[in-house]
Amino acid sequence: MTEPITEAGVYELDDATYHGDPVPGGSLSSSGARLLLPPNCPALYRHRQENPIVKATFDFGHVAHRLVLGKGTEFKVVDADSWRTNKAKEAAAEAREQGKTPLLTKDFEQAVAMANAVRNDPLAGPLFRHGEAEQSLFWQDHRTDIWLRARLDWLTRTTKGQVLVVDLKTCEHADNEAIRKSVSDYGYHQQDALYLDGVTSLGLNEGKPPAFLFVFVEKKPPHIVNVVELHPATRGWGRTLNDEAIDTWIACREHNDWPGYGREPGKPHDINMLELPVWKQRQLEDEFGSPTATYLESA
Amino acid sequence: MTAVEPTSRRNTASTNTPVRAAAPDFGRLGQATAVEASRAIAQVQMAVTIAQQVPRDEERAIAKMRRSCTRMELAQRAFYSLPRNNKAVTGPTVQLARELARCWGNIDYGVAEMVRDDDHGQSEMQAFAWDMEDNARNAETFIVPHKRAGARSPLLTDVATIAENNASVSARRERKVIYSVLPAWFTTMAQDICRETLRVGNGQELAARVQEAVDIFARGGVTAEQLEKRVEKPRADWTADDIAELEILFTSLKNKEITKEEAFPAEQERVTAADITNPA
User: Fold this and answer.
1) Does residue B20 sit within a domain?
2) Contacts of A209 in chain B (CB under 8 A)
3) Are residues B99 and B171 in the same domain?
4) Are B65 and B95 within one domain?
5) Which of the residues B51, B53, B139, B152 has an alpha carbon 20 to 30 A from that of A192?
6) What per-residue confidence (pLDDT) applies to B3?
7) Interchain CB distance below 8 Å, A127 and B275
8) Mutation to test the B interface, candidates A160, A212, A244, A246, most B Cβ within 10 Å
């Protein structure tokens, strides 16, 4: 464990230190903020805090990060077709002992193809030529003073000198519609807003508004790349949700209560009353008019 | 609504809604309210009878509407614009709705606060519009929390502030129910006339009106360049329709329906391909 972080700034930290949260009183990260809000809940956030995920199996995303950014999880290629043989299992165990992620030759080749697709992309390629990888930002929220942290995949500048945060994402489909859905499902707009607020808060942008680009690359050949920027209004919604997550985090800590679904921290447990999804209600209303009353009434 | 103990702080507000003719059975019912309830029943019965005996003359209704909508005073208040997704959406206002209801005739409309519940910090409200002649009625019952828009507003406790908050939230519902009982063609026609009124303006030459618009916005700190960006063409090419749109925007800014920042968003430059591919 390195020195605790008590001053806002940009730090060079290894993965374990960053994810272990080096801020003494605790800090909230973008992934943490997303765990606190629906469709997740504070109980999930709490669990993840207490049980950090140790990725035993290899993850395309991590390997692609390592290959494109030159930083991140270290891995070791195991020359085998599958994990079924004892030889392969031993090699995997050995790699993990060294703190490396084991991966099979065929998977490695696929990850290399992905990284090459990014490097050869006319937009994404030049983007990753100059810049700094895996910078850790620590700052205090201007509204609540709580500590926030972010780990930027890539920090660079446009040719006009505008500060640019780039995030590399591996995905099944990189078409615009699929990405819109991922943004909404995984809260990428929250990540966008939080990272840019961090950059602005630390003055890295030198007064000019910073920008955020996502580089999506498909896991399957031909590994199509799509470079996207989120609309300012979408970022605005992300910021709204971040504020909500921050307030939830504060309330959970105050009450030392990390509720599951549909309950606010500090409030008593209650049964959730649920209705059909709105679209289904509309559909049924169109077809049948109104719901049938209880059988007792008509008896 | 279940009966509650008489010590409850719930109280009924005076109401002129025709649906709730029977006195509510909770809380203490004041004598004035009881009288008002009986009077309301009689009034409603009479109003319906009269409405059916003296049906509206559509030609007269159109003439009345046309006279109103050609007035600059109404036309200027006929449209709102609100921010949605970085763009302004416009629509007809509740002021226009009320005026059209008056012109169309035989329409009873309004907003009633049915219950004010201080314990739970909310009011139960109803907005209704009733075409007494055709017996088309639309009512929306809704709950207004005693809070300002925005999740983190503190609970309002001041009686006047609560009333004001209720009124402002209800205006939108009132607008919706009135337009739902007015014939769509009547509303569309009225909006077209209002737009034409704004377009023609006070009869000044176009160039003078453009200058006037620029000057008025300049007083509020909006530059001519911002206006040009919003209209999407240089001042020299503005038409009377553009002036009419700016007029609507000006009213909305004045009414605080939209903020200056929302109406004229700061230039957010998007990152272009050239920005990331040309070597620095």
Assistant:
1) no
2) 268-269
3) yes
4) yes
5) B152
6) 40
7) no
8) A160
B75 and B159 assigned to the same domain: yes
Q: Same domain, yes or no, for B144 and B205?
A: no
pTM: 0.59
Write out pLDDT tens, residues B79-138. 887 766 656 678 899 999 999 999 999 999 999 999 998 888 899 999 999 999 888 899
Q: How many domains does chain B have?
A: 2
Nearest by CB to A159, from B86, B270, B275: name it.
B275
* β-sheet bridge partners, residue A166: A154, A213
* Residue A29, pLDDT score: 96
User: CB–CB of A244 and B276 under 8 A?
Assistant: no
Determine, yes or no, domain membership for B46. Answer: no
**Residue-range definition of the domain harbouring residue B210:** 201-261
Cross-chain residue pair B271–A232, CB shorter than 8 Å: no
Calculate how close chain B gets to A219, using CA atoms only, in Å: 24
What is the ipTM, given to two decimal places? 0.74
C-alpha pair distances (Å), B218 with each of A78, B212, B213, B264 = 70, 10, 8, 13
CB within 8 Å: A159 and B279: yes
Distance between CA atoms of residues B198 and B72, nearest Å:
7
- Which of A126, A161, A164 is nearest residue B271 as measured by Cβ atoms? A164
Is residue A191 predicted with pLDDT exceeding 80? yes
The answer to whether residues B158 and B226 belong to one domain is no
Is residue B73 in a domain? yes
Q: What confidence tens digit (pLDDT) does each residue in A103-130 have? A: 888 888 888 999 999 999 999 999 999 9
Q: Is B232 left (phi over 0), alpha (psi -120 to 50) or beta?
A: left
Mark whether B161 and B205 lie in a shared domain.
no
Same domain, B168 and B255: no
Contact A137, A198 (CB under 8 A): yes
Length of chain A measured in residues: 299
Residue type, B25: D
Are both B64 and B175 inside the same structural domain?
yes
Residue A107 parent element (H or E):
helix A105-120
